[in-house]
Amino acid sequence: MSSNKKYWKSVEELNENSSIVETLKQNEFVEEIPTDEFLGDKETLEETSTTRRDFLKYVGFSTAAASLAACEGPVKKSIPYVVQPTEIIPGVANYYATTIADGFDFASVLVKTREGRPIKIENNTLAATNGSANARVNASVLGLYDSLRIQGPRKGEASISWDTFNSETTEKLENIAAANKDIVLLTQTFASPSTSKLISEFKEKYGNVRHVAYDAVSESAALDAYQAKYGERGLANYDFSKALTIVSVGADFLGDWQGGGFDSGYSKNRVPDHGKMSRHVQFESNMSLTGANADKRVPLTPTQQKLALAKLYSLVVKKNVTVNGLPEKVEVAIKKAASQLLKAGSNGVVVTGIQDVNAQTVALEINEALSSKAFDPNTPIKTRQGSDKAVAGLIADMKAGKVGAIIMSGVNPMYTLSNASEFEEGLKKTRLSIAFSMKVDETSSKAQYIAAAPHYLESWGDVEFKKGHYALTQPTIRPLFDTKQFQDVLLKWTGNNVSYNDYIKDAWGTDILGGSSFNKALHDGVYVGAIATETVETTEETSADNSTEESTETTPLGNAARDLAASAKSKGLELTLYTKVGMGDGQQANNPWLQEFPDPITRVSWDNYLTISKADADEKGLVNKHVANGALNGSYANVTVNGVTITAPVMIQPGQAKGSVGLALGYGKTLGLKTEMQTGVNAYELYQGFNTVQTVTIEPAAGEHEFASVQLHNTLMGRGDIIKETTLEIFNTKDKKHWNAVPTVSLNHEPVPVTSPEVDLWDEFDRSIGHHFNLSIDLNACTGCGACVIACHAENNVPVVGKTEVRRSRDMHWLRIDRYYSSEESFEGDNTKKDDISGLGSSLSEFGEMENASENPQVAFQPVMCQHCNHAPCETVCPVAATSHGRQGQNHMAYNRCVGTRYCANNCPYKVRRFNWFLYNGNDEFDYHMNDDLGRMVLNPDVVVRSRGVMEKCSMCIQMTQKTILDAKRDGRKVGKDEFQTACSAACSSGAMAFGDINDKESKVAKLLEDNRMYHLLEHVGTKPNVQYQTKVRNTTEA
Amino acid sequence: MEKVIHRKLGKNILHLGLIILLAFTTSLSAQEGDPAKGKALFNANCAACHQLDKKMTGPALRHVEQRLSDDQGLDRDWIYAWIRNSSGVIKSGDAYANKIYNEYGGAAMTAFPQLSDDDLNNILAYTAEEKAAPVAAVASAESATTTSNEGGISNELILGALAILFILLAVGLYIVNKTLRRFALAQNIELPEATQRTPLWKAFVKNQFLMLVTAIFFLLASAYFAFGYFMQIGVDQGYEPVQPIHYSHRIHAGDNGIDCKYCHSSARVSKTSGIPSLNVCMNCHKSIYEVAPETLAEGKAIGVDYNAEIQKLYTAAGWDDAEQKYTGNSQPVKWVRIHNLPDFVYFNHSQHVSVAGVECQTCHGPVEEMEVMYQHAPLTMGWCIECHRTTNVNVKDNAYYTKIHEELSKKYGVDKLTAAQMGGLECGKCHY
């Protein structure tokens, strides 16, 4: 069944005659080595004055000189501690629980430190409820070693001391307070109980103090709706593990919707268990990560989404709301979704990402009507607290000259505000402006004082994720630079001489812990207390703006839906601004790991772009095309919103709703980052009125943009059967061989399964003794979030190669997440269409139709790394035996033995081997973290940094398995159940990746090996991989 | 024989003799006391905090009784009371007791109620002795060096004499030969002329087979030596760099018998053995501020002043020996690294030290005899592999190995498994 489906990674592959796809299939290394470039052509060779004899002399001399120089080894120094801290043993890693809270990402994490250096972020398994480390959080450790960090406080351009800073600013603040002018604290969402307390103390001291929380990507509408309904400013908390029917209208809840962190709960019900799994219907305009994971995805423009939500409301809650103007097909889809919701009852949940108070209210009302178990109104999420109105009011006040002092922390309004120029104007009228910042960025460069702020790994802090769920931030390294955190300076300003550390301890002791141990909370990183009753300080800031919402509250049920339907009026092409999994709000734009991280959907790295549907692109004359080496080029388009125009490259996105376009925020930064990282365009300029949906006009612009897209890289030689997929119905009713058959080969004219020994070219090695490692990847649980990709980078010292090299298919990712589209919405449709094809003429037109069906393709994600084949094709072709097999199932790679013939890569059916074209850690052309002393501190000392001319690949984290074994040996015990981990499996919070020893029959992975859904990639090749995949099952049940 | 002066350790007998001699000559304010017994008691009870001539945790104690009676007018009874229960004396409000208590940072002296009057008299007798001049020790050390030198000279002498003898013999033979010829000439005896034969080298050149064989031999030999030469590039066996502080493993690990893992403690749990941090050195060297005279002399013989090396340690650790406190100005020591494995090799000390129970000396050689540390083993891959092939895995009492050992020994039909049989030769075990 599954093998009949047609999968494609790029629209280009649907073109039967594409020579590029053919070339890519045939060549592992598409680009010819430019020998002419360094050998020169005949003419230059003849012109040269060096004779053959001279040349030989030079060669001889330099060889002799080099070998002489090599005879004397360099003198290496070893410098031990003078006083060794008791908790540090050189060579042994320490782990600290801490919390990231940068205003956009909030997560409880474990930090791995070696010799005092934080080198990796891992999930804090104690804090499963608080959101896990996503790709950005995993990458955040590199931000600590950013060479462009500001190294001390500044006044304008000049460096000053903290003493000067404190005395000058305190004096000015006192003067401003005396003059009865406003002092404004414009900060990120801290969600920090102790900071709130501190700010109220600051208010007491200075009087006219206003605290404005500002989220770069606002969730204000959802906050307002929740506040109006439940009286507390927070975001509705959903636990998708309790939902069996999920209907999402424009909510990218596997991405950054309402702060993110919902994916692990979502994945729990995505794996069929006893014949049951959740059903997920998604209505959206951009192709989001969530839409890609949905069982049914309906592309709708933002206006249609509003109508759809209102319609859904009318069908589920049965209020008399009339909704007109939806296409019939969509109406049918909504009706089906509604009936499924009603059938599911309290097991259903509806979420929406429409930034509109009415829409958010409607979603809350539907969930209440369903009495949804997944929706918990008692523990609102606290990690977004910004108010659009308060920010708008502040800018107006600043322009009017009412504000005496502005103190900013964790925000970059000059970059993230669409009306940045107005803010700048206001800033000039402010007597004192202070920016706490790690960089000289767009905002801090305009402020009078820059207070050098520490990285979160150097700071203290606390966070209330959701009501009653607390977490602590602790420093994992002494501050690298002369920095002070916002709270410490606040304490100084309030005349308090305690450190923020003591302040937190004190605040927790009195307000939060209720007698429990602070040290225990600090050790665990998290603390779940009794649900607090007192409201948080920020609410009073926004309470002034609540008048409008109160009216909403008093209106009878159904009005919100009616208003929503009425407000849905399309005025043309609609732009939806979104945040990418790899970049978020753009705080970490100077992070090369994140820049090189390919977007899960488009597979494009180092860019943002205007996503547009094929139909709209054709209409506007916008194109995407692949050049000879498979790299992607796209047209430019001028995108205009209310007179503001930016020129962005165009990416034709299958599944983009017609009449809508998308553009990612977080790119186009120009200050505080290296030139290489200054990528993309700043979409915040179009983020007017904090509205993610804007009406736009699009004009083609001159020029062609070069994308660094990896979607056509590493095509598996045209071999099919990559993804196995089936429906829940078939999965439940039919035999395994029907939907997950083992491929057969003919032996004596009898079909024999490829797994049987008699059809094998190799003799089997007995692996039943000792450990035998397997990695299992569940295609149902994998959301494609990419946390594993970054974790792999951090663990294995994978180099960053830069945009031009990625374009040349030379990306070094050991682990890639392939994204496959399949054309038909349903299997049946796909299959009947394919079966009906007769003859070439017909096939061309039919496949052509399938291409048109790329309007709304189904998506599947498949992480692919070295498959560690027991019968590995790479091992047999290595002329120097640099790659060989271990008895524990790992395919070893001895880098020092490799001479770089690249035969192995050519012979690998999975295309997972990566060649070091350059010395990425010693070449100024690659100005990324491996090329500066600070950035090198993040390298894992247990894994060698590979040199130029060497093949590398996934090692199945042999350094981690070896460590686990050694720990057990040293303790004289057996290795515990599921104790083995790899970087990717440890980073996977959705449970898609399971790693372990299949000789331990109790282990999870041994059980998964026996699962009916288990298959191996390209099983018919007979490589016997040690990576298993679990067939993807889609819940296509239509009610 | 090396010794360091330790407050708990005795001095050598010669020194002791001198002291006894001096003890009789000095005025004995400490009547009835036996300084020899007193010394033993002092070392057993007091030396952890007191030194005769040097301020330590407590004050210097030479002539303490005289000093107290002269300066403070305190008698021996006061001393008895103080030693047996110092906190009691302090509590009683005694002025001097409180002064001393505060001067030494408010740390009360341990009470010694078990010491009898005789014991205390003995100790006081010992403290009343004059300081001995360390002349004898130096002299004895010098004599030691001369004797050792004598042995060397005698060997050379014998060889020289033999050489002269051979030369004389050769000359004699030549002269005899010459004289005999002259006799023959004088008596007209005709000596048979040697027939002109083809020279050996010409015959050799003419014999092509021999030439071929020789050429092949030379080529093979030169290839062998060239290979040998190139293979030792990058092999630093015997590397013995000069270190910033002359640290003698011979004294510490050899003579004093300190366990390797006392200082290199992380070898038990970590991949690195760890160069000890200076606070580990200071655990002992806070009280060992100089070496015994013989040791010092031995050092002088090889051009090293051990006491100066200890001073270097103090400078590095920021220890003010006179004030007995840390100044905070530390200068980390930049040791020259001797054992360098390339980055692409993963080696874990704890695997070998804790799990396998391999002696440090197996790889690092006779460290306890090394005055200056050098690289004993070649640290080449062949050397590692050789050991993995021949060494049996230490599976005793280790639950990790129980199952795998049983299965593997059945598979290979052996009783004991080598590291290689356990998979210790796989590339990926050390290269990742």
UniProtKB/TrEMBL annotation, chain A:
PROSITE patterns (UniProt xref): 4FE4S_FER_2 (PS51379)
Domain 4Fe-4S ferredoxin-type: 773-803, 857-888, 889-918
Pfam families named among the record's database cross-references: Fer4_7
Biased composition (Acidic residues): 537-552
Start and end residues of each stretch annotated as Disordered: 537-560
PANTHER family referenced in this protein's UniProt entry, alphabetically: GLUTAMATE SYNTHASE [NADPH] SMALL CHAIN (PTHR42783), GLUTAMATE SYNTHASE [NADPH] SMALL CHAIN-RELATED (PTHR42783:SF3)
NCBIfam families with a match to the protein in the record: MoCo_extend_TAT
Protein name (record): TAT-variant-translocated molybdopterin oxidoreductase
Organism: Flavivirga amylovorans
UniProtKB/TrEMBL annotation, chain B:
Descriptive protein name: Cytochrome c3 family protein
InterPro entries: Cyt_c-like_dom, Cyt_c-like_dom_sf, Multihaem_cyt_sf
Keywords, sorted A to Z: Heme, Iron, Membrane, Metal-binding, Signal, Transmembrane, Transmembrane helix
SUPFAM superfamilies: Cytochrome c, Multiheme cytochromes
Annotated ranges, domain Cytochrome c: 33-131
Signal sequence interval, chain numbering: 1-30
Transmembrane stretches, start-end: 157-176, 209-231
